[in-house]
Amino acid sequence: MNKRTRVVVGLSGGVDSSVAAYLLQKEGYEVIGMFMKNWHDESVTLSNECPWMEDSTDAMLVADKLGIPFQAIDLSAEYKERIVDYMFAEYKAGRTPNPDILCNREIKFDIFLKAAEKLKADFVATGHYCQKDTIQVGGRRIHRLLAGADPNKDQSYFLCQLSQDQLAKALFPIGHLQKSEVRTIAKEQELITAEKKDSQGLCFIGKVKLPTFLQQQLKPKKGDILMIPAEAVIYQQKLAIAGENQPVEMNREELAAQCMPFRYQPAHGEKVGEHQGAHYYTIGQRKGLNVGGTGKPLFVIATDTRQNIIYTGLGEDHPGLLRNGLFVPGEDMHWIREDLKLQTYQHARYLARIRYRQPLSGVTLYMMEDGGYFLFDEPQRGIASGQFVAWYRGNEAIGSGTIY
Question: Is the pTM of this model over 0.85?
Answer without folding.
Answer: yes
